[in-house]
Write a structure and sequence with these properties.
It contains 22 helices and 21 strands. The chain has 692 residues and is an alpha+beta fold.
């Protein structure tokens, strides 16, 4: 089925041919393609790298179409391209309802849009869609690098709209874009300060992998794998001085259940299902709990994590956000972290005080069989200690210290159901989880309630010498496991690692530098540890990132209120409302002025402006231009009336005609008389000075 259009026959799925004034040219298409590349670059760190292929193929097809080597892309080709992108994303993520897959599909459609971009209207649609895809990049990251790159990409997209609107050259589009973005800057800053703070639009559920390396269950050697990574876990900024290195035990959760191989959490839901009782018996929801006076006050900048855990320096006591305070000292947020988030905490710096009878019984449980030598060894140590739990722990510490135990990131693999025996009496090599899990097993075998705590130990100090070091950067290689034992009516922290590798406690994880496997996955970033200049640069950058997150991304209603109080001494809601209304009124007023000014009869052509100045001068002598008289005709008429200036006026008529009427097509190039636009301006000024 075909239908005629002039002398060209086209099928039903083919679009109507465009006239030259409707079609996009090489300059606009090139600009749109570069804009697509800039927007795509913001996603490629998180999206599949093969998404660049549809962009390249669509651009190649479109530019070949300009050269009349391929036909315009039909609907079947475009649908097939979209289906291929969707199939690739399905194979990449395993489902299409995942947020990353949906973002990838949006990016793919944006890139393939170039296939059907022929008219000026299509170009505007591509630019508009580019802004949407650009905004979705903040679902991945809201850091300063992403913000700077987004501003660059947004400026390029605005330049594309300016080109489509009629800009003749790239330089003209660049100037107009800078002017528009400069006008919008005060409005952006004003809205940022005045507009009431709302939750970020990108705070939506995600199914990405956790950045925290800790998991719900741990077996000996699991945490050792985290020593291969230098990824940031979180940052902490203290209200006062930093705690001593030996006190920086950041607890994340406790592990109380042991099946002979792995330790796992006894979550509140699991406990309530097994033991019954009200939910408040296992967790309290609110902004704080009773647990003594706080020893540390600090602010955490948390990395994204789909799990709800929040690290705390000892037992958490209060926070600026509602959370769940578990009876074992674990702090859980009310939702997962899909972006970086700020959290203010106060904590005791010590293990939690609560230890009900059911918890003590839970922390005595062991499998009925297995590890017989370890059980006998625990009973023997308890007998030597005279039944004193503190004496038992002292003897166990001395055993680890005196025997040839070795602290290593690459321990031999342990298998079977007697792994505690194999480590304690045979291999004698392990990481913190080996020593912690063995200690908990021995303590329980001796009748002492004990549990393993997983978290982080240490942190790299940040801050300037003038203000004092008040910040810590905690990384994945700081992951650690230690023990809490119950005796004397309260929980006590016991770290067997201190008996084998005391430098790990005093100096942090960097004391492991040089061991096989340490920071093996860090790549080139590992060199920053050995280079003082690179290490200082990294610290400065991390401090800048922290302040960006705290002051820009984390700018909440409390900070907004504090800013108003510093500026005006008092905060009132009605002032904020009037401030927003005043800002919008100023924007409307400035816009109205610009619209009215743009309606005036003005021109930017230098030749027209120069002629008008001369015409006003001649008008004072009664020789002004007549209605509808062209500049050249006017000056030649005046030359006939002024014999003394006839030569100069005739030359001026030639210059102004060449300057005005030839400049549009040949500005910046040489003309027939060998004069450029700049030389014409100089020649015009010299002739005007000669007029009597």
């Amino acid at each position: 089925m075909t239908r005629a259009h002039g002398n060209v026959s086209r099928r039903w799925w083919q679009r109507k041919p465009l006239t030259p004034d409707q079609a996009l040219g090489w300059l606009e298409l090139r600009h749109l393609f570069i804009g697509q590349c800039l927007v795509l670059a913001l996603h490629l760190l998180w999206m599949p790298i093969w998404l660049a292929l549809p962009a390249l193929l669509a651009a190649l097809w479109r530019f070949q179409q300009l050269r009349a080597r391929v036909p315009r892309a039909g609907i079947l080709l475009r649908l097939a391209a979209v289906c291929l992108v969707a199939a690739g994303l399905f194979l990449e993520y395993g489902q299409m309802l995942r947020l990353e897959a949906m973002i990838g599909l949006l990016v793919g459609i944006y890139l393939l849009k170039l296939l059907e971009t022929d008219s000026l209207r299509d170009g505007r649609v591509v630019c508009g869609l580019g802004f949407v895809v650009l905004a979705s990049a903040f679902l991945h990251d809201q850091g300063p690098v992403m913000a700077a790159a987004a501003i660059l990409a947004a400026g390029w997209l605005i330049g594309g709209l300016v080109l489509i609107a009629g800009a003749r050259r790239s330089g003209e589009a660049l100037r107009e874009t800078c002017w528009l973005m400069g006008l919008s800057l005060p409005l952006m800053l004003g809205l940022f300060v005045l507009f009431p703070r709302l939750p970020p639009l990108w705070n939506v559920p995600q199914l990405e992998e956790a950045t925290t390396g800790l998991t719900d269950s741990v077996s000996p050697g699991d945490i050792a794998a985290l020593g291969r990574s230098d990824e940031l876990a979180f940052r902490a900024r203290f209200d006062g001085a930093l705690p001593a290195a030996s006190e920086r035990y950041w607890r994340v959760y406790t592990l109380s259940l042991f099946d002979g191989v792995r330790w796992s959490r006894a979550s509140p839901d699991r406990l309530q299902s097994a033991l019954g009782g009200p939910a408040s018996r296992y967790a309290v929801r609110g902004r704080g709990v009773d647990g003594g006076s706080p020893r540390h006050r600090y602010e955490l900048l948390l990395e994204p994590d789909p799990r709800p855990w929040r690290p705390s320096l000892g037992a958490p006591l209060s926070s600026d956000q509602e959370a769940r305070y578990l009876v074992d000292g674990t702090l859980e947020g009310m939702s997962s972290l899909n972006t970086r988030a700020l959290l203010k905490l106060s904590s005791s710096g010590q293990p939690p005080l609560a230890a009900p009878q059911w918890m003590q019984r839970l922390d005595l449980l062991l499998p009925e069989d297995g590890n017989l030598r370890a059980r006998a060894f625990a009973r023997d140590l308890m007998h030597q200690a005279g039944g004193d739990p503190q004496g038992f722990l002292r003897l166990l510490f001395q055993h680890f210290h005196r025997q040839p135990y070795h602290y290593t990131l690459t321990p031999p693999r342990l298998e079977g159901m007697n792994r505690v025996d194999d480590f304690l009496f045979d291999s004698l090599q392990g990481y913190c989880t080996h020593y912690a899990s063995t200690t908990v097993f021995l303590a329980r075998a001796a009748g002492i309630p004990a549990r393993m705590v997983a978290g982080y130990l240490g942190g790299e100090a940040q801050g300037g010498a003038a203000s004092g070091e008040r910040e810590l950067s905690i990384r994945q290689y700081d992951a650690h496991a230690w023990v809490e034992v119950f005796h004397g009516g309260r929980w006590h922290r016991f770290d067997p690692t201190a008996a084998v590798a005391p430098e790990r406690i005093a100096q942090g994880a960097l004391s492991l530098q040089g061991q096989p496997g340490f920071m093996a996955d860090a790549g080139l970033r590992a060199f920053t540890l050995n280079n003082s200049m690179l290490r200082d640069l990294r610290r400065q950058w991390e401090r800048f990132e922290y302040r960006w997150q705290r002051s820009v991304v984390g700018f909440r209603l409390e900070q907004q209120r504090s800013l108003w109080q510093r500026m005006f001494g008092e905060f009132r809601w009605e002032w904020l409302v009037w401030g927003v209304l005043g800002l919008l009124a100023c924007v409307v007023l400035v816009g109205a002025v610009l619209v009215l000014w743009s309606g005036r009869e003005v021109t930017t052509h230098a030749g027209v402006r120069a002629y008008r100045r001369l015409a006003k001068r001649l008008e004072r002598s009664g020789l002004g231009p007549g209605p509808g008289e062209a500049p050249g005709s006017h000056l030649r008429r005046v030359a006939r009336l002024q014999p003394d200036n006839v030569k100069e006026l005739l030359q001026l008529s030639e210059v102004v005609e060449q300057w005005i009427y030839n400049d549009d097509a040949q500005e910046g190039a040489s003309h027939a008389g060998g004069s450029s636009s700049r030389s014409m301006r100089r020649q015009w000024s010299a002739l005007c000075r000669k007029l009597s």
